[in-house]
Amino acid sequence: MSRLLIATDAWHPQVNGVVRSLDAIASHAAAFDMDVHFLTPKSFHTLPLPGYGEIRLALATASAAARAIAHFQPDFIHIATEGPIGLAMRRHCLRVGLPFSTSYHTRFPEYLAARAPVPVWLSYAFLRRFHNAGAGTMVSSSSLEKNLLKQGFKKILRWSRGVDETLFRPRAERVLDLPRPIFLFVGRIAVEKNVEAFLRLDLPGSKVVVGDGPMLARFKVAYPEAHFMGPQQGEDLARTYASSDVFVFPSLTDTFGIVLLEALASGLPVAAYPVMGPVDVIGDSQVGVLDQDLGRAALAALEIPRDLCRVHASTFTWKQSAAQFFGNIRAVLEPASCVKKRRKAAIAWGRPA
User: Fold this and answer.
1) Which terminus of the chain has a lower count of CB atoms within 10 Å, N or C?
2) Where do the domains of the chain lie, and which CATH numbers do they carry?
3) What DSSP string runs through 53-84?
4) pLDDT for 226-250, tens place per residue?
């Protein structure tokens, strides 16, 4: 069985697409003859990211990355994020000549520009340099691939996402006792998710918001008519999806949107802007309405059959996602080279190779 070391700054207790994706592929690793080990913030002293208490920035170093490689002795190395851990692993790999792959999960330049006066081109310059040093960069959709190619990224690989159809499914039980129709949003309550565009809509029935984030307290005061459920996971989240009528996705900056698949698998039609993420997940499937007028999209989505949504979601599975991921790893990384060099690294740290 081959060994894969994944370096990631995003990890539990964070609840986001990166963590869900990594958890999912790890759960299928054995089926693809892979033993996966993670280097996460739990291995380091950390500092909280301002405004995001659950996100901790690791005080990672290249020497710590070297020790992790020497300890686990991986055949392959994947860098999932561009934070301190990703940077430390990249630095060490380049220093000793170890090949690695990367993945691009977050439209960081757009997120940062929404919060601070940092030019988008400058952020892309940093990310381009980060990722192009690897053997290949995995992206979730064709829209993201086209965007990154325009920004000068090279060696792009496709890695789509999936959904747990057993957990997220239509249910007869209704846990939301609210006036209908019920329009639902699930995600981080932060500026980059554009949640206020949903909250401002003049819609009949009820608006329900599931999630946590730095803007939650403000929105509770500004929009008292909306129902803020706080963060939910597992069965609680699945029941909320299935109890709603339309999933409204106001984000303009997501690269994919796993929540879209969770909603669809629950029988929930989608209303969203015609942007990256919704365009790739919904496409011409008729399971959602993509419109620059989000309110019009939300009302039109009420007419979509719920069973059609479920069928479309079933075309996205985590097993297929894992097959893409591990296939990419084996396609672009030469294990013999990695094995030879990690043995050198192990010897340098006084460990048996």
Assistant:
1) N
2) 2-162+318-348 (3.40.50.2000), 182-313 (3.40.50.2000)
3) EEEEEE---HHHHHHHHHHH--SEEEE--SSH
4) 999 999 999 999 999 999 999 999 9
